Amino acid sequence: MVKAEALRKENQSLKVQVDTLTAEIDKLKSAIEQMESPSSRESIEASLNTEAQSSLDFLSTKYDFEEFRRHAQREIQRLNLLELKSKLDMVGKAIEAFEAYSYQFNAKIMGIPEIGSPETAKDTSELCVALFNGMGARVSLQDIDVAHSVQNHNQNGGPKPIICKFVRRLAKYEVMARRHDACKVDPVTPMVKAEALRKENQSLKVLVDTLTEIDKLKSAIQQMEPPSSRESIEASLNTEAQSSLDFLSTKYDDFEEFGRHAQREIQRLNLLEIKTKVDMVGKAIEDFQAYSYQFNAKIIGIPEIGSPETAKDTSELCVPLFNGMGARVSLQDIDVAHRVQSYNQNGGPKPIICKFVRRLAKYEVMARRHDACKVDPVTFGFSDSVSFDSVRIFDYLTPNQQQILYEVSINYDEAKKFKDRHKFQYCWAKNSKIYLRKTSDSRPIKITSIGDLQRLEDNYTASIVQSNS
């Protein structure tokens, strides 16, 4: 079961970053407010004499905020939160997917009286087993991860609901298939809670949405008056045009300094650090996904035995295959097995994804995977005309790992990809990791990302250039 503790910590760190961004915006607003003048430019121009007016008009074209406004607007646009919100949406969907996956193992039971106070998780689990057996489902205590009572949202005075989390989805499916018989069980006979990370993530996106105050700040910069006061200008003006020009030149320099100060403040508000945190969350999600996929195996070439073929049918098809290979695996070692859509439209049977309860059971199967094509299909009930020659078993890779495998293994004539381009003899996946090997005697290279391939590509290119020089 994938744990979400690391993801929860990353979300907390992301919230701290959002708080920091908000504080920086407040500082920038204060700086702008302190630079605003209590008088308008028109009142200053009214106090100038006729002789200085022409010079001031000339300098006013230089004393222009338009360039600064454009620059500030560009800087602020760099700080737009669209990319961050997009990444947070992806994180939210991933968390929701994890949560939905976890809930697939759960069943909620209503109306069972409590047998003690307090009622321990073991008491509740044993109560569930008795109920399920009374319904006709073959479930033991080993099929239950935990069962416990939860708070009842309806204050009707009835018993608390029970959340029962199964170890294997096949066991849950058997219970759910007989759920309508729960009310028929004789009560005289012996008879999972997940953290709401999605809600926290949603709240985090609301906080990010509130940072649209950046747009208001942009408008304030565009509408603000020159950072000078009437009193300071009137004190420095005299009847000589040169004095007026000197004064405004000084103020123009002050404004330039303010512009640099504002630019520094805006640069401090860049989202690089927050984006880094979001990337870390994305990496954590990939790690969680990779961990979950370690329990999975992909089987190709097994004919379908019915339409529709249920998960139980598929699971019971896998067990004799594994036993025929020499692996000691039972139905209790399988969480669930089901068919998935084939990406290759070759008309063959759909691949099977088999998820194990224990990785040790999967490792035993994978150690004998080369014998899968040697199993006699007649033992499955197939006719003599059916052949298992094309049956293969692989590690089931995450989408990211599948992309990496595609990059390193696709045919040279079709896409000129990595493996054939650099004449690697071997490319394989083991325990959800991808490896390359130049020759049978060389050291294997582990590939964890597309970036690893790019670095290898760069190294080979550099070595070729060096050898030709």
TrEMBL record:
This is FP protein C-terminal domain-containing protein. Residues 4-31 form a coiled coil. InterPro entries: FP_C (IPR057251), Transposase_22 (IPR004244). Residues 414-456 form the FP protein C-terminal domain. Pfam families: Baculo_FP_2nd. Keywords: Coiled coil. It comes from the Eukaryota.
